[in-house]
């Protein structure tokens, strides 16, 4: 069974191929070590936000295979699109210091083309505005947005997705009791 899929993202226009499984950006799960293993199997890791800029530079130097990018690597891609082989995302909260740290990482390690913005209340107006700000600063990056509340109805989710300018949305799935 071939589980690999190819996606072209609405806002970033990047094309990604891989198995659509993303390791969460929790501090004990979304690690560089996990990214090395998962990328060998074409799976994705949202790296937790507690790594320093120095940690990211070291990871990029020691594991370039996790951060590959090929421009127009397939004939079916449009001229302006990139085929992304990178299987990692930098994670950030929605504070000013979070934005500053994420910006520093993306500047120092330009091979990172995915951003994971993850907060407890992904439907708040503050967060929507933050996603718009990140989109304006990083228009060619693919942005993952979470956590979107499962209680939002379909129309509210569509509006959030349209307004926020994200590319991938995660929804907290909670059991019904």
From TrEMBL:
GO terms for molecular function: GMP reductase activity. The keyword Ligase does not apply. Its EC number is 1.7.1.7. Keywords: NADP, Oxidoreductase. Coiled coil: none annotated. It is an enzyme of class 1 (oxidoreductase). Residues 13-151 form the IMP dehydrogenase/GMP reductase domain. Pfam families: IMPDH. InterPro entries: Aldolase_TIM (IPR013785), GMP_reductase (IPR050139), IMP_DH_GMPRt (IPR001093). This is GMP reductase.
């Amino acid at each position: 069974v071939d589980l690999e899929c190819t996606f072209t993202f609405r806002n970033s226009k990047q094309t990604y191929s891989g198995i659509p499984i993303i390791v969460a950006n929790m501090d004990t799960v979304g690690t560089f070590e996990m990214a090395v293993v998962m990328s060998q199997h074409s799976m994705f890791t949202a790296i937790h936000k507690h790594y320093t800029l120095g940690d990211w530079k070291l990871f990029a130097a020691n594991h370039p295979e996790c951060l590959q990018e090929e421009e127009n690597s397939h004939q079916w891609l449009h001229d302006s699109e990139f085929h992304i082989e990178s299987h990692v995302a930098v994670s950030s909260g929605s504070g000013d210091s979070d934005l500053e740290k994420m910006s520093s990482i993306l500047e120092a390690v330009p091979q990172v083309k995915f951003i994971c913005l993850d907060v407890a209340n992904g439907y708040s107006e503050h967060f929507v505005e933050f996603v718009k700000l990140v989109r304006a600063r990083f228009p060619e990056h693919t942005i993952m947005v979470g956590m979107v509340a499962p209680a939002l109805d379909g129309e509210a989710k569509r509006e959030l997705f349209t307004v926020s300018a994200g590319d991938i949305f995660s929804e907290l799935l909670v059991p019904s009791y």
